[in-house]
Amino acid sequence: MHFPKLYKGTHLAVPNISVRRAARVEISPLGGEVLLDVDGEQLGVLPATFTVRVEPALRPPPDSAATPAPARHRRGSSHPG
Q1: Where are the domains of the chain?
Q2: pLDDT per position as a tens digit, 70-80
Q3: Concatenated DSSP letters of the chain
Q4: Claim: this prediction has a pTM higher than 0.90
Q5: Which candidate, 27, 25, 29, 28, places its Cα nearest to that of 51?
């Protein structure tokens, strides 16, 4: 098991470990009971489904990567603030 590497964040160098992006993840045990530990908290057992929801106010505009943000100035000042 590579739990120390997982908690240190160095687990991505372990063979057969990969990173994926998803809005929804379903996890099922391969056999037997598997405890579900999330951030050190025992939340139950597998199977489990996780859904990531980003509030619209927190989403960047679709073209934000291509368009730099405008410079902001303080009121009454000609210098960028």
Answers
A1: 21-54
A2: 555 555 545 44
A3: --HHHHHHT-GGGSTT------SEEEE--SSS--EEEETTEEEEES-EEEE----GGGSPPTTTTTSPPPP-B-TT-SSB-
A4: no
A5: 25
